């Protein structure tokens, strides 16, 4: 039996702890915060409750696999609900669209009805290409560890796969081969933001994101997606994992060339045969290791998010679970993000689950509002961001977001009981992500998949899970990172 220390109790760390304990290892899970969950955050006040991280669960098969291999199935502990529609879109020309959640034929029909005949076929043709990319990339890219040049050389031999994935093309370039309607292109560009990237620089392989979401569906967990993290933590404890919160790891220690354990802020040392890091890779390599030169090449950080948590009086007729309101000039939004400045005219994302557990009474609503935002960067470190701690900035920008919402038909200013602001600086402080970058490094560039920090570190015995490591951010990929690492380490 190996002694494993897992650092960080986000979903990646929690899932790795469960899989490794189910494999017979002795596991201790350390979390610097008072609660588990990481970016699956939660905020409650006056009977209102909010998920402060992800609002959509896709590929629940990843989570089902975790629970089945560690005991009782997922549905025995969580109420997982399929969403239909997946989202309500409002385009700058006034057209509105409910995007169905019950399969691709329904999506095509809805696009024809809302945007005009032929739009459904355009989108379906594009998703056929995305489906082919998914088939080619799922095994070697998403479900396996990348082994540097060895992986590149193996993939390069399969010329058919290379043509399908089109690593030389951006998401936007690929989309414009199939989509002529600017609203369809706008829909596609949005998926680049799922990885905190620019659609003109993000790889064409990101086309798999809308395919997976619309082909397999999107899901919600009653009581909030935070319940998923709590359920995985409960499973970990049931299996015998020692879960310690308020345990701040300040160093990963080595003996010779190999991992030997960790040191906590209070001086306590825990010996380990294996350490699994679920913290942001930049924090790991810059702060926790004794040899910072082992850090991977610095890359552009993904974007972050500016969040408003709105406690509202009254109910909104026809309100959907997710609402997306696009700006007049979507390119200007990406230009602002690339320049590291707050977006002047942002896309508005609203998550407003119709869930009694999130509101104090039937005459109220709890809205999570997100706009894309540059990372927090008070020091101007390239590629730069915004000093979100600058006096008055967060409050002024919150008012700006509320005004933009009103201009797009979501005026809730006279219904506000109160609101809370969450900036990239808050996310950086709470989760120690680099500048509050939601997804670690961005997915910009053809080789981005191969430049993410690997699951097996250069230090023997040290492994990485979570959204900043391979295969990337988002609940499904974070879960897959834990599966990959458990396979790399093997059973006890």
Describe this structure in words.
By secondary structure, the chain is α/β, with parallel strands linked by helices. The protein has 3 domains: 3-40 and 60-75 and 224-296 and 453-489, 3-Layer(bba) Sandwich (FAD/NAD(P)-binding domain); 84-216, no CATH class; 300-436. 35% of the residues lie in helices and 20% in strands. The strands form 5 sheets. It has a 7-stranded mixed beta sheet with strand order 8-7-16-17-18-15-19. The protein has a 5-stranded parallel beta sheet with strand order 10-2-1-14-20, covered by helices on one side. A hairpin with a 4-residue loop joins β12 (258-264) and β13. α1 (11-22) packs parallel to α10 (226-239), α1 (11-22) runs parallel beside α16 (475-489) and α4 packs across α9. The model has no long low-confidence stretch (mean pLDDT 92).
How are the strands of the largest sheet arranged? 8-7-16-17-18-15-19
Query: Outline, from the CA principal axes?
Result: globular
Provide the helix percentage: 25-40%
Counted beta strands? 20
Q: Unreliable stretches, pLDDT < 50, 5 or more residues?
A: none
Number of domains: 3
Note the total helix count: 16
Structural class: alpha/beta
User: What is the CATH first-level class name of the largest domain?
Assistant: Alpha Beta
How much strand?
15-25%
Major pleated sheet: 7 strands, mixed
Report the end-to-end length measured between terminal Cα atoms: 5 Å
Radius of gyration: 22 Å
Mean pLDDT, as a whole number? 92
CATH homologous superfamily classification of the largest domain: FAD/NAD(P)-binding domain
Assign the CATH architecture of the largest domain.
Answer: 3-Layer(bba) Sandwich
The third-level CATH topology of the largest domain is: FAD/NAD(P)-binding domain
Pathway: Carotenoid biosynthesis
Organism: Kineococcus gynurae
Domain Amine oxidase: 11-301
Family: Belongs to the carotenoid/retinoid oxidoreductase family.
């Amino acid at each position: 039996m190996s002694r494993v220390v897992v650092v960080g109790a986000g979903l990646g760390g929690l899932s790795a702890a469960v899989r490794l304990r189910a494999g017979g290892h002795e596991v201790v899970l350390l979390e610097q915060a008072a609660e588990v969950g990481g970016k699956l955050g939660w905020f409650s006040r006056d009977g209102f409750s909010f998920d402060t991280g992800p609002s959509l669960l896709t590929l629940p098969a990843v989570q089902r696999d975790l629970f089945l291999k560690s005991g009782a199935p997922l549905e025995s502990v969580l109420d997982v609900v399929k969403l239909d529609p997946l989202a309500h879109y409002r385009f700058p020309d006034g057209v509105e669209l409910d995007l169905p959640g019950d399969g691709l034929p329904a999506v095509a029909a809805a696009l024809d009805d809302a945007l005009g005949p032929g739009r459904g076929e355009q989108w379906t043709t594009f998703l056929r290409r995305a489906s082919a990319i998914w088939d080619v990339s799922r095994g070697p890219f998403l479900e396996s560890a990348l082994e540097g040049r060895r992986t590149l050389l193996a993939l390069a031999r399969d010329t058919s796969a290379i043509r399908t994935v089109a690593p030389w093309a951006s998401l936007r370039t690929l989309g414009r081969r199939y989509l002529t309607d600017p609203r369809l292109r706008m829909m596609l560009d949005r998926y680049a933001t799922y990885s905190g990237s620019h659609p003109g620089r993000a790889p064409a392989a990101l086309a798999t994101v809308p395919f997976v979401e619309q082909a397999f569906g999107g899901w919600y967990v009653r009581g909030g997606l935070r319940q998923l993290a709590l359920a995985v933590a409960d499973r970990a404890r049931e299996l015998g994992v020692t879960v310690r919160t308020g345990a701040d790891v300040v160093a990963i220690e080595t003996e010779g060339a190999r991992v030997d354990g960790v040191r906590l802020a209070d001086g306590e040392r825990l010996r380990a045969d294996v350490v699994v890091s679920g913290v942001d890779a930049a924090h790991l390599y810059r702060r926790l290791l004794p040899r910072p030169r082992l850090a991977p090449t610095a890359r552009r950080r993904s974007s972050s998010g500016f969040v408003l948590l709105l406690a509202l009086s009254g109910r909104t007729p026809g309100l959907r679970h997710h609402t997306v309101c696009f700006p007049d000039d979507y390119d200007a939004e990406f230009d602002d993000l690339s320049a590291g400045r707050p977006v002047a005219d942002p896309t508005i994302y609203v998550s407003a689950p119709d869930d009694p557990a999130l509101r104090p009474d039937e005459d109220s609503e709890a809205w999570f509002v997100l706009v894309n935002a540059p990372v927090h960067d008070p020091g101007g470190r390239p590629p730069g961001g915004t000093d979100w701690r600058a006096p008055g900035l967060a409050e002024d920008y919150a008012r700006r977001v509320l005004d933009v919402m009103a201009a797009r038909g979501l005026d809730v200013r006279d219904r506000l009981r109160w609101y809370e602001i969450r900036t990239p600086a808050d996310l950086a402080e709470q989760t120690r992500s680099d500048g509050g970058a939601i997804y670690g490094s961005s997915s910009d560039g053809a080789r981005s998949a191969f430049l993410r920090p690997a699951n097996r570190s250069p230090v023997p015995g040290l492994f990485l899970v979570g959204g900043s490591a391979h295969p990337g951010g988002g609940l499904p990929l974070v879960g897959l990172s834990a599966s990959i690492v458990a396979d790399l380490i093997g059973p006890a």
